[in-house]
């Protein structure tokens, strides 16, 4: 989801050699040798699985390890066979802003028994998220991401909202907000490694978690073991270019969904052709611009309606869910005064996510990471010009993918953006129909990580493969690598089962 660094040495500012503190070199050694107090997690799923949780103390600012500290929450599912145990596998579910304590409960279902037997599976709420000193900016909304709307007046409203969100974060969190960043989360991961007494980390990440994993390999190449990056972010385009790159694949996915929905018109009555389904959907956005659509406890406006399409489009298995959602929105728009349309559970969940603030999940913590990683353009006119250029080819998602965010009003990041280019071995898994991290982004990360192999899931629209979308070929590649450390001899293409 930001501009790439230019003209800089690939190692300048990233400190490959200096990033791995050792005893006696002035690094924050005391954090690496702390004792952890393992307890029940207080989470139904984790406790039922026999996991334990602990808080790991880390410095707020690694440049000042003697200053204020916070704790980062981790969970541990111990290796099923201690005699065959290889080490630890950390993880991240994406976002940024996704809490990850329970992530491995689902991912382990795709792992073979001989992989589960070898690793302590470590979940983690990254700093600023969940149980790890969560950022809470006191926002009146759920997340900062919005569509710009249909006209200049609507764009200016979003620009004012985003500036206000940034102002609220600065007032609520103060200067320490600058230390909520991917680089510091990667450093926290290394402290976790040290506190667990392990020489290296294996890792599994989805989506943004691939960027975090790639940054870890750049900062700590000698401490990276078996790394799997699923649905990968192009590190060079992290930030606003990453958001921009979502526009085109989501328009393509919307066409695919409209074709499917037209074939099921007898059930959804949204149109008998792809063109009619699409026209109805685009018209709903224009209607929401004229007057927000009452649905349940919400008034669905032009800025949020595209988000209700964006979320289910990431997985073709949700096509029926999306058709039902659009049918409900259309019914609500057509409803006579006094008629109340109750959103289905999927739509209610998505509406709540965008409209209602919840500090423990995404929300202002997501902004803190994105805006703390990359310095974004500050001039609203730059965003407006991009939105206008994209409307013809991306009538639904262009105004979302190119919109201004709170990052345009954020304080400058504490550090430069990480340049990822290294030979650390890794397995990158990417679906060609991915709408969140387009296929080209996985290819680009593969090129930047010269020791990696790429597993392509061909002709499947899904975001997050292993542990989410069953595929024997992809699962075999991931499990073989985690079990034996064996990467495919060459890049591999998998077909849908």
UniProtKB/TrEMBL annotation:
Protein origin, superkingdom: Bacteria
Transmembrane segments: none
Keywords on record: Hydrolase, Signal
An example molecular function term from Gene Ontology annotations: hydrolase activity
InterPro entries per record: AB_hydrolase_1, AB_hydrolase_fold, Pept_S33_TAP-like_C, Serine_prot/Carboxylest_S33
Record domain Peptidase S33 tripeptidyl aminopeptidase-like C-terminal: where: 395-494
Coiled-coil regions, chain positions: none
SUPFAM superfamilies from the UniProt entry: alpha/beta-Hydrolases
UniProt domain AB hydrolase-1: residue ranges: 92-273
Family per similarity comment: Belongs to the peptidase S33 family.
Protein name as catalogued: Alpha/beta hydrolase
